[in-house]
Amino acid sequence: MTSDQHKFRIGDPVWAKMKGFSPWPGVVVVPPVEVKRPAIKKTMHCVCFFGTKDYAWIEETSMKPYEEFKDTLMKDKKSKAMQQAVAEIEKYLHDKDPNLLQTETQTKNQSEDAEFDALISGKQSAKKPAKKDGRKRNLSEESGSTASGPSSSTSKKARGRPPTKAKEAKVEEERDASPVQYSKKAAVTGLLDRPSVLRPASPALGMDLVTSSQTLREKDIQPSKLNFGFLGLGIMGSGMVKNLLNSGHLVTVWNRSTDKVKDFVEAGAKEALTPSDVIAECDITFSCVSDPQAAKDLVFGNCGVLQEINTTKGYVEMTSVDSDTSQDIAEAISLKGGRYLEAQIQGSKTQAQDGTLVVLVAGDRSLFDDCQSCFQAMGKNSFYLGEVGNASKMNLVLQTMIGVTLAGLAEGMALADRAGLQQKDVLEVLELTGLNCPSILQKGKAIIDGGFPTHQPLQHMQKDLKLSLNMGDQLEQPLPLTATANEVFKHAKRLGYGEHDVSAVYIRARF
Questions:
Q1: In Å, how far are 40, 138, 167, 242 from 260, measured between CA atoms?
Q2: Which residues are registered as beta bridge partners of 252?
Q3: Burial, 100: exposed, middle or buried (Cβ in 10 Å; 0-12, 13-18, 19+)?
């Protein structure tokens, strides 16, 4: 990468954007030892965020000069945290003190900082003359383009004759054959030797947020007067927030993509810019995101939940997570005086919209009582299971049973088709047996129709099976059927059906 492609240097004030969060003022700094650079081949800079003093590696494409974009990015962003951050960066610009955010160790090593700056700008250090070896020069330029410091390989002396053009071409060819670049579409297609199948696009949200379901209207719900927050407006979260609004609750929402938020604001919800703003605004906040890592990012990340948690706040984790993740979040919330619940949900998009989910709850009993009107709006039953971890374990047990059953259904339907039987006849016979249940029949019909409209994403089921296997390893409990089902779902996910319904596992079984 050439030097003119590096836009930022140490000490530059910037607007930096992390995935899922609004742009935030910060400054490019020398990375502390404990902040490791992600192993990706993109130009990145270490940024210290004003207001929170958090460090993060940010891709250069997600950074903008502070002064140039100040008026644009400050528009309508008047949260307390943002005001504090802007005040600090303005003080930094006024003082013109680049050491404001440097550690004592960084201050003592000015020579190292100068060398790092030289690498960032793509220029050779004055202390080290340029080498004539073409291959060594390429390696030096490559290490500088990553903004991660000099490579140890550049300090070795070249031995023997200079490499020929043929050898340099071979080096470039080997570099192109790295694992990251190998995952190109053509290479993966050849590796999997996947069949050519039609992949229908997943349907959009398409939800009527104003009209209450018949089930919700039949419930006698007395909405709590507390202010509630909700983080995550995905397939399940959207349905639950809809029922909270239609049952009279006051709800403030946040979502990684702001497009979904507009519809809920029109339906009566309030919008917040960051997760920490939701916590500050509300008495109790629910979270329902994709996986354990996303749940942790909301809590521990920049402008996250922990920033505003105090003794008056409650936090309810509804993401399907393992017990270890739930206990880590519970400990962090409790150390700041907050109350914590894990509330795992059983059901699909239809149940979330109708308010007929089953809610499995564990944690603070007083918070469980305060959330009763919300749980009543979301589901048909809520079970309190005691200490933190019990609800997540119960949920994974149930997900294991469901996942193995669906894998068996997919294989059975594939076998029937291969044997020349009509799949609709198979379902008619199933309705007359002990296997007659709404879930199996619904997924069976989806298999026959072949559209796989998303009610429960396949990738979420595969994630839960993986978490179940991890729990089995910890408890030394053999789970051979779960392991096999996990591989079947994993293969269907690799075929491109991760965001489709779990019934799309049939594609793997069929081919």
A1: 30, 46, 53, 12
A2: 229, 270
A3: middle
Question: Are the C-beta atoms of residues 448 and 410 closer than 8 Å to each other?
Answer: no
Q: How far apart are CA 453 and CA 155, in angstroms?
A: 57
CA distances from residue 469 to 133, 290, 333, 405 in whole angstroms, order as listed: 51, 18, 27, 16
* Strand 284-287 with 270-271, pairing: unpaired
Spatial separation of the C-alpha atoms in residues 214 and 410, rounded to whole Å:
32
Strand order, beta sheet including 24-28: 55-59, 44-49, 24-28, 13-16, 63-65
Contact 30, 46 (CB under 8 A): yes
Gap between the Cα atoms of 151 and 2, Å rounded: 17
Phi-psi region of 200 (alpha: psi -120 to 50; beta: other; left: phi over 0): beta
Instruction: Give the other-Cβ count within 10 Å of 247's Cβ.
Output: 21
pLDDT in tens, 339-396: 999 999 999 999 999 999 999 999 999 999 999 999 999 999 999 999 999 999 999 9
In order of 8, 133, 321, 387, 433, the CA distances from 291 in angstroms are 34, 48, 6, 21, 36
The residues, any chain, with a CB within 8 Å of residue 161's CB and separated by 6 or more, are none
- Under a CB-based contact definition with an 8 Å cutoff, are residues 23 and 64 in contact? yes
- The values of phi and psi at residue 244, to 5°, are -65, -45
Do the beta carbons of residue 489 and residue 458 sit within 8 Å?
yes
- For tokens 């996910």, the residue is 493
- Following CA atoms 14, 17, 21, 24 in sequence, which dihedral angle do they give, to the nearest 10 degrees? 0
- Does residue 207 surpass a pLDDT of 90? no
- pLDDT tens for residues 458-491? 999 999 999 999 999 999 999 999 999 999 999 9
Q: Quick one: tokens of 3?
A: 């030097």
Closest CA to 465 of 436, 493, 444, 441: 493
Q: Would residue 158 be called left, alpha or beta, if left means φ above 0 and alpha means ψ between -120 and 50 degrees?
A: beta
Centre a 10 Å sphere on the Cβ of residue 275 and count the other Cβ atoms it contains: 28
Packing angle, helices 259-266 and 235-246, rounded to 10 = 10
Neighbours of 498 (CB within 10 A): 19
Measure the CA–CA gap between 319 and 290, rounded to whole angstroms.
Answer: 7
Task: Give the Cα separation of 475 and 483 in Å (integer).
Answer: 15
